[in-house]
């Protein structure tokens, strides 16, 4: 039997039933990541979505104290200490007839590269905004990544229970600054301490909220706009203002269509408060109606349909020591086509080797359980004995290789010193593991006498995390020595292109983990000066994707 990919099924007599099972599984899956600026409430929203999915019984605030529980998605010790998300996690849960794969990403800008990699595995994205602050720098930056990948974007305006900007102004800002059409799916009734609920535009229904107990679901009261009880429950001025603003929106002319959403041209907008659980449930239900299910992905063999009979997927993240007691290393694999089954043998595209996947894991924050079967849109954890790298493709049948995940230009550079030579074994093991994860980029001096690695990061907090994990996970305290550079560029033509102009001034040449030349500059002026003096030297701010080459270990 032929699949939608044009490939012949080899599933045997029961092949048709298996294909139907796979098609049904793909149809009910929704996969998404949440993007936001720090402190917009991303982790709190994640916890409330898990609460509605029944994955947890009580939601924990990010800054949990005393008897209040810790958040599920922030499992790393440093995350608990600082009350921030600094690593991506995967949370799979069911809601109604749907299976949801929520890719929780770091909100802090210093970990934006981890977020870029996670967005490569996402089918949809939720852009979270603070009602008082509107669009913020990190949100804009991550939006551009979504636009580049044509990821459908949903907007949730958070913290409506606090004083904030006018809803119409927030919607206008998105349209004007991001060039994105907005269609508010619901509209707020009041704001701050007078936030009473929302009006569902599609159903012309009012949803009023009653605050629940701490960490519990809010109570909803639904009624039509014409219900005579409405005037008794909501102040007349709040209701009248919301209805007048809705008239303005209805006259704006934009239509809510799945095609516009899925092409990334229009964003459905929702209003609510994750902390008080106002508006989260209506958002979740509407999102499942409007979001894109797992779709075809670009590969070396063309577009790969999720209903292709053969399994394929790619690694978008590596994480070490999720269980510090066992010093484990886990590869996060996004399933793109076919049905994944425990103990299946797959091909590793980069090395060409055959690998048996005998201990696949379902991920839920730090918690894991053995998974026997997974479908396109799912993310599973694979034990990684140093075999997998970020961007690797695993497949069955004819060879496919998905688009790699590039490295972005770092902005902070420091020598990493190991003050204790007797701990070099642990130092080397930790540095290599963190490089594999992509926690930080590792550069090396071209002088063979200088063996200390150079940590290259987007933000200072990345360096602090590396030091913390080297000491906490590998027992190796380290010392940083900052280098006076702020900009990095890869030399497109490799070492021959770098050597052709002769000696270069006001920059430092180093090599990355794939032995590619990288130039470091103290500032953008030095970069521009070099480009003016040597226009024949092609420099790239994004490292080209590497295939078929093993990285250099410390």
Report on this model:
- This protein is α+β, with helices and mostly antiparallel strands and 554 residues long.
- Helix content is 26%, strand content 28%.
- Strand 14 and strand 15 form a beta hairpin.
- 44% of the residues are buried.
User: Would you identify the CATH architecture of the largest domain?
Assistant: 3-Layer(aba) Sandwich
**How many whole angstroms does the radius of gyration measure?**
25 Å
Spatial strand arrangement across the major sheet:
18-17-23-14-15-22-19-20
Strand content: 25-35%
Q: Helix tally?
A: 14
Structural class: alpha+beta
General shape: globular
> What's the CATH topology name of the largest domain?
Rossmann fold
| Total domains | 3
**CATH first level of the largest domain: which class?**
Alpha Beta
Q: How would you characterize the largest beta sheet?
A: 8 strands, antiparallel
Name the helicity range.
Answer: 25-40%
Distance between the termini: 50 Å
Number of DSSP-assigned strands = 33
Keyword list:
3 domains; alpha+beta; Rossmann fold; Alpha-Beta Plaits; 554 residues; globular
Write the layout of secondary structure elements.
Layout: H1 15-27, E1 29-36, H2 42-52, H3 77-82, E2 89-95, E3 98-104, H4 112-119, E4 124-130, H5 137-149, E5 153-158, H6 167-178, E6 181-184, E7 186-189, E8 197-200, E9 205-210, E10 219-224, H7 230-233, H8 236-250, H9 258-262, E11 266-271, H10 280-290, E12 297-299, E13 302-304, E14 312-320, E15 329-337, E16 340-341, E17 344-348, E18 354-357, E19 361-364, E20 367-370, E21 373-374, E22 379-383, E23 393-395, E24 407-408, E25 412-417, H11 424-437, E26 441-445, E27 454-457, H12 460-474, E28 479-482, E29 487-491, H13 494-499, E30 508-511, E31 517-521, H14 524-533, E32 539-540, E33 542-543
Parallel strand pairs: 1-3, 1-4, 4-5, 5-11, 6-11
Antiparallel strand pairs: 2-3, 7-8, 8-9, 9-10, 12-13, 14-15, 14-23, 15-22, 16-21, 17-18, 17-23, 19-20, 19-22, 24-33, 25-27, 25-28, 26-27, 26-30, 29-31, 29-32, 30-31
Helix pairs in contact: 4-5, 11-12
């Amino acid at each position: 039997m032929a699949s939608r990919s044009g490939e012949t099924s080899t599933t045997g007599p029961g092949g048709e039933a298996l294909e139907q099972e796979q098609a049904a599984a793909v149809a009910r899956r929704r996969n998404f990541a949440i993007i936001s600026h720090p402190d917009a409430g991303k982790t709190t929203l994640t916890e409330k979505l898990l609460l509605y999915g029944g994955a947890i019984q009580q939601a924990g605030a990010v800054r949990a104290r005393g008897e209040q529980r810790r958040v599920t998605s922030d499992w790393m010790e440093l995350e608990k200490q600082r009350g921030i998300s600094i690593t991506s996690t995967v949370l799979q849960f069911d809601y109604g007839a749907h299976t949801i794969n929520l890719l929780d990403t770091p909100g802090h800008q210093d970990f934006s590269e981890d977020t870029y990699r996670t967005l490569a595995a996402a089918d949809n994205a939720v852009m979270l905004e603070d009602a008082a602050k509107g669009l913020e720098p990190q949100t804009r930056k991550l939006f551009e990544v979504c636009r580049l990948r044509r990821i459908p974007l949903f907007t949730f305006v958070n913290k409506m229970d606090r004083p904030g900007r006018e809803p119409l102004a927030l919607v206008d800002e998105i349209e004007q600054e991001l060039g994105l059409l907005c269609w508010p799916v619901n509209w707020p009734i009041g704001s701050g301490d007078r936030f009473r609920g929302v009006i569902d535009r599609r159903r012309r229904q009012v949803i009023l909220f009653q605050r629940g107990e701490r960490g519990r679901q809010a109570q909803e009261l639904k009624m039509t706009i014409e219900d005579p009880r409405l005037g008794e429950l909501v102040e007349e001025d709040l209701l009248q203002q919301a209805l007048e603003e809705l008239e303005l929106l209805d006259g704006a002319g934009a239509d809510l269509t799945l095609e516009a959403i899925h092409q990334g041209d229009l964003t459905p907008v929702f209003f609510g408060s994750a902390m008080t659980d106002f508006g989260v449930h209506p958002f979740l239900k509407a999102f499942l109606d409007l979001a894109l299910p797992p779709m075809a992905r670009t590969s070396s063999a063309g577009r790969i349909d999720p209903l292709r009979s053969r399994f394929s997927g790619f690694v978008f993240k590596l994480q070490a020591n999720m269980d510090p007691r066992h010093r484990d290393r886990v590869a996060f694999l996004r399933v793109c086509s076919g049905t994944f089954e425990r103990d299946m043998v797959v091909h590793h595209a980069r090395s060409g080797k055959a690998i048996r996947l005998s201990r696949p894991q379902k991920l839920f924050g730090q918690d894991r359980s053995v998974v026997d079967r997974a479908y396109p849109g799912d993310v599973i954890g694979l034990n990684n004995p140093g075999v997998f790298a970020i961007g690797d493709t695993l497949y069955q049948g004819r060879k496919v290789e998905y688009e790699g995940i590039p490295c972005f230009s770092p902005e902070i550079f420091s020598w990493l010193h190991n003050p204790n030579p007797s701990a070099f074994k642990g130092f080397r093991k930790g540095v290599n593991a963190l490089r594999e994860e992509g926690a930080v980029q590792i550069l090396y001096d071209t002088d063979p006498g200088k063996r200390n690695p150079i940590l290259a990061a987007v933000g200072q907090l990345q360096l602090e995390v590396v030091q913390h994990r080297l000491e906490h996970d590998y027992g190796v305290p380290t010392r940083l020595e900052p280098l006076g550079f702020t900009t990095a560029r890869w030399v497109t033509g490799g070492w021959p292109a770098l050597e052709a102009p002769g000696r270069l001034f006001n920059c430092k040449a180093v090599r990355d983990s794939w032995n590619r030349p990288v130039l470091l500059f103290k500032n953008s002026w030095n970069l521009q000066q070099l480009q003016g003096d040597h226009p024949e030297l092609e420099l790239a701010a994004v490292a080209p994707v590497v295939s078929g080459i093993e990285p250099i270990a410390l």
